[in-house]
Amino acid sequence: MNNPSFYSKQHQIGRVGSTDVIQRYFYLVKQNKRKESTIIDIGSGPGNVIHDVLIPHFKSPVRKVVGIDVSEEMVKFANATYGNEKFNFEVWNIENVVPKRYISFFDYVFSFSTFHWIKDQRKLFLNINRIMKPNAQMLFSFVAQTNLFDIYQSVWRRPEYAPYIDDFYAGQSCFQKSKEPLKEFQTIIENAGFKIEMIKMEVNTAKNKSLVDFKEFLISLSPYYHKMPDHLKENFMLHHLEQVQRDTRVESPNNYYMKFNYIIAYAKKKEIVENKAMLY
Ligand SMILES: C[S@@+](CC[C@H](N)C(=O)[O-])C[C@H]1O[C@@H](n2cnc3c(N)ncnc32)[C@H](O)[C@@H]1O
Where is the Methyltransferase domain (predicted)? Predict the structure, then answer.
């Protein structure tokens, strides 16, 4: 997950990525052709999605685009590749204190395939509320549940790998075990001061051409592959791969697949947020 060029190459496999969500749901975003807007992408990774896919959808003038990511490597790559007067990428963990310059600053918030990394969802949405102007809009998607997170649990806890794992829940949705993830999530964002205009859970399936493709896909998503010592890396991935399901109806060795349950939502910041909700 810390390798920007590798990640950009891999992440669209199976169309579980952000492009698909943007193409199908950007129409919900309302634009004001007479006003310049400010935009943020939370968890912008290598920066290709916001730069190449999202911003071209804007027909209204854009003043400032900020991509934030907790990974220094991603931000460095994004600035070197796409940074200019309008586009700026910054290292910022969205769970941390909001910089003063960004309080009530953004007209639009976007985030794709990132919120499952955030453990404290309530704090996440209170922070997002703070950076948005009243009535500002947000569109996002993230993985709420997937078999991959169960695979992480079983592989990471093996005695040969466990010493290298400092957080057994890194990169995994806190809704993984929830019986009603959509309902639970909806309550969190409404309490954080948002009016939801569209929310749904969708299944996306990653189907890959070969086992090698699938291996690279999982490496690009793994929070720990790059932290494993070299002599363990190969087996670490093989232990993941041996748990990936195969579609036996497909008569081909390339019948590996993985399902991802995505939550996709479009919401607006409410004009008035109760003071109580803002305290944390
Ligand atoms: C799966 S990538 C998604 C990248 C891009 N949005 C896309 O759709 O291709 C998730 C990104 O979120 C970043 N991330 C994880 N936790 C974060 C946090 N607390 N604050 C900001 N970024 C975070 C990771 O470093 C990673 O680059």
Answer: 34-149
